Amino acid sequence: MIDDKKPLEFVQSKSFDSVQGKPKIKNRLRHCRVMAGLQQKDLASLMDIDPTQISKWEQGERTPSLYNAIGLSVALGVLVDELFYDCRQEWHKTQMARMTKTRIVADKMRN
Questions:
Q1: The domain spanning residue 65 has which CATH number?
Q2: Number of domains in the chain
Q3: In 3D, which of 9, 6, 41 has the Cα closest to residue 22?
Q4: In angstroms, rounded to a whole number, what is the distance separating the alpha carbons of residues 99 and 102?
Q5: In this structure, what is the dihedral angle of CA atoms 14, 17, 19, 22, given to the nearest 10 degrees?
Q6: Which of 3, 36, 77, 104 is least surrounded, with the fewest CB atoms within 10 Å of its CB?
Q7: 16: β partners
């Protein structure tokens, strides 16, 4: 039986704080909220939660539940993944690597 009251353990990866083992949502959440043009109280109102929850998440004191992470993604118009990890930065790195490989192949074909 699963204990609902215990928080899930997260697997260590680039998107996690290596010291505390917690997802790095605080900076991503604030960035997404500001980009959406919302204040903490506005976001809390959209999600029907107390504004102190948003503050605690952004300060890294707490991590939102899966339910709240989904609510955040809907309210902010982003993917849940984007709250925990900067997907665009990783996509950009991947695209740059592909472009570099393409140039190398094209150069070899010309010679």
A1: 1.10.260.40
A2: 1
A3: 9
A4: 5
A5: -120
A6: 3
A7: 23
